[in-house]
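Let's practice the habit of predicting before peeking. Look at the sequence and jot down your guess about where helices and strands might fall. Then scroll down.
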Amino acid sequence: MSPNRPALIAVAVAVGMCGCTAEPSTVIPAGAATTAYPGEPTPLPSGLVDPFAGYATVVDGRLAIVLSGSSSCPPHADSADLATMTFEFSVETEGPCTADLSPTTFEFYVPSTENLPTFITINFTAGDTPSSQLPVLR
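Done guessing? Here is the structure:
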């Protein structure tokens, strides 16, 4: 056995045990949202034409906002103004981000889902789209 072989085996074992992975994280910080998770809520709302454009819907009495983007750099809910139905999001782009357009759902407790507006406002603190209107689908 060469003198460096035990050192190489120790490095290989340490790398294997570190939990390093190229797969995207399934843990998404909720931030201002009640909860956040990868994917879309089910069932999908009627009237959904382009799920990649983003939309809002009602899930179990909560307002769910679905945004598409990188699964390795998902958006983060920074704030929610329920009086004006304006929601602030940011995206952490440190490191490589995939271009897979994966959906991420953010759920918010709202006083009532009966009187939701037709559209809500989404503001991004960074990126090319500073503000957009998302439809609230039922």
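How did you do? The chain has one helix and eight strands.
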